Automatic annotation (TrEMBL), chains A, B:
Pfam families: DegT_DnrJ_EryC1. Keywords: Aminotransferase, Pyridoxal phosphate, Transferase. It comes from Autumnicola psychrophila. Belongs to the DegT/DnrJ/EryC1 family. Its EC number is 2.6.1.59. Gene3D superfamilies: Type I PLP-dependent aspartate aminotransferase-like (Major domain). Coiled coil: none annotated. NCBIfam families: ECA_wecE, PRK11706.1. It is an enzyme of class 2 (transferase). GO terms for molecular function: dTDP-4-amino-4,6-dideoxygalactose transaminase activity. InterPro entries: DegT/StrS_aminotransferase, PyrdxlP-dep_Trfase, PyrdxlP-dep_Trfase_major, WecE-like. This is dTDP-4-amino-4,6-dideoxygalactose transaminase. It comes from the Bacteria.
């Protein structure tokens, strides 16, 4: 049996968790939270980092920081996880969904401008499969129309974008705010977990307050105010030190984890390129401006039936492959609010995209087996 | 040095965490989440349980379930943690703060009715120090005015209330909804963590949907629907299995933990009763309808200066004692919204309540030392 995913432990997670206990602190914002913040900020050039209990919570913090209110419009892809949407719906926003690119499930950067109105407050690009959107295009629109950009970088750790200026920048370091996930299905994990990156300095102080339940507790412990209290809305966005200690063990092994995942990804690509590559079905496309963080290896089938046949065939051979999102503009919750704009590519990916197993402990023989099952199948 | 708190590990936390990894699941709603749900529901007679990443998140779920909207009024004590308040402010509620009882920091049940208006939607009693409010009085008001009751039972695990009918019921099993905390400062911990108890059946199905990010994923995995999608608002309220595994180790040892804490509490009480007890200062009051879960041992000083002197004296002897909440109606965030009603007892507790160290590994000698420091001090 080859599962779709298996969470990987480096071996030091429990050790760090016990160390956290010995410092006398298991609640949030302790030693390991600090280590993770410092590491991520320095490595990827974020303005400021705050760990959260999930990427969902990081997106909710972003919506609060942008003061999203009833009637505001937020532009995002339809082909994304519900949390991208819910975080803004919870603040009262109206969502304006953009179609996916033809060559990639990420949103079509050229279809954004026509959707901007006077009510538009933010654009939320999703770096699908950890592959960059053409973020320069989006930032240019944001500047032109005075909008904020929140990168949904849930899948995009250790992934980069090279703009027209030739500078290679980490995803999540470019938008005003960015949200990352450390869910067990991601490259770097803490079971459930996430992080908000804050790049626009105007949000840094308030982000810390929202994170600490609407109190100025952090400023108090730095000696900047002489008592702390309730100064703003907020929530308990910060994760336990148990989670941060776990995450720290993962981050220490980031390079090894990435090397292994890239090896698996390349084995899939090389093994399937001659066979698939637009004839039988499509393989992932990595634009020139993007790097590949090997978060996901997916196939884009020619039609829904073909995908069903592949899932079935793999299942017969005890391999678990899974599809991904269903277009949010057609969801029971939002279809009546979306109107009648069709989003053809988003629907295609909903029906035709299939994800193959990809995790650290997957063996080369396993990948070969999967490649051969696909090649032998009648599709 | 005697700290105010030290998180206690039973020794099996890491073992269960590794077991969770071996089941292939570290994200939420796995084996250990299920074990915790079942145990808590059965032991305390809750209608349904859902672990959350914090008590704050459980309160936010409650506010969503009650469909709290802009203009709704919610009645709660002023002497409470900011999360009791923020959860409802995030949905647009106006907070109506009630004073504390003279003999206890919990809210004065007899001062609620006069604050009920046509806009009132819910009452949120806080079982301060794990000691029950007179919850029958509050439930009677709720029935009379058609309101919901959300018990803030953050501190109230393994604590009970005996109503006029003579039936002893667990706190958190009485209101329509109830929120618990497993923050490291509580009796049973998971670093950060919480739980929503759902007692009113009308909320059970939707609670599960909100918990699963607004999807009907749980119903899908039970085979009740043939695909799942976005059907409602929601968030990532569920904690990692790492946290649930940790919590399970604690729950297995609940009895031992409670016995030890009660032993400590009783040692404080017996040691200080003759000395304090209304003369120099006040000791905790446990009403006849309530049990004591030994969550907290506090002193109520005669004045703020006396409290400062005690804190200072204990600090000289390397003992860390801390005060607690600041009245929310006087907070920078809410003072202008509260109006000019004075809440005398809430302010008294803000200025005069002092919490002494109380944790599993505290030694009897340590408590004796603290008692002697207090008795020797000039107050």
């Amino acid at each position: 049996m080859i599962p779709f995913n298996k969470p990987y432990l480096t071996g030091k997670e429990a050790h760090y968790m016990y160390d956290a206990v010995h410092t006398g602190k298991l609640s949030g914002n302790g030693k390991y939270t600090g280590l993770c913040h410092e590491f991520l900020k320095k490595k990827y050039g974020f303005g400021k980092c705050l760990l959260t209990t999930s990427c969902t919570d990081a997106l909710e913090m972003a919506a609060l920081l942008l003061d999203i209110k009833a009637g505001d419009e937020v532009i995002m892809p339809s082909y994304t996880f519900v949390s991208t949407a819910n975080a803004f719906v919870l603040r009262g926003a109206h969502l304006v969904f953009v179609d996916s690119r033809e060559d990639h499930p990420g949103m079509d950067e050229d279809k954004i401008e026509e959707l901007i109105t006077e009510k538009t407050k933010a654009i939320v690009p999703v770096h699908y499969a950890g592959v960059a959107c053409d973020i320069d295009k989006i930032m240019t629109l944001a500047t032109k129309y005075n909008l904020y950009v929140v990168e949904d970088a849930a899948q995009a750790i250790e992934s980069f974008y090279t703009g027209k200026d030739g500078v290679k920048r980490a995803l999540g370091s470019i938008g005003h705010l960015a949200a990352f996930s450390f869910h067990e299905t991601k490259n770097i994990i803490s079971g459930e977990g996430g992080m908000l990156a804050i790049n626009d300095p105007q949000f840094m102080e308030r982000a810390e307050i929202l994170w600490e339940k609407g109190t100025n507790r952090s400023a108090f412990f730095r000696g900047e105010v002489d008592k702390y209290g309730w100064v703003d809305v907020g929530s308990s966005f910060l994760p336990s030190e148990i989670i941060a200690a776990f995450l720290w063990a993962q981050l220490e092994n980031l390079q090894g984890i990435q090397e292994k995942r890239l090896e698996h990804w390349n084995q899939y690509y090389e093994g399937l390129n001659d066979w698939g590559a637009g004839k039988i079905l499509d393989l992932p496309h990595i634009p020139e401006f993007a790097t590949n963080n090997a978060h996901m290896f997916y196939l884009v089938c020619k039609e829904a039936d073909q995908r069903d046949r592949i899932i079935e065939k793999l299942k017969e051979h005890k391999v678990h492959a899974v599809f991904h999102y269903l277009s949010l503009h057609k969801s029971p919750f939002y279809k009546d609010k979306h109107g009648d704009r069709t989003l053809e590519h988003a629907d295609d990916y909903s029906e035709c995209l299939l994800r193959l197993p990809l995790f650290y402990e997957l063996k080369g023989e396993g990948i070969d087996r999967i490649i051969n099952i696909l090649k032998d199948a009648e599709l």
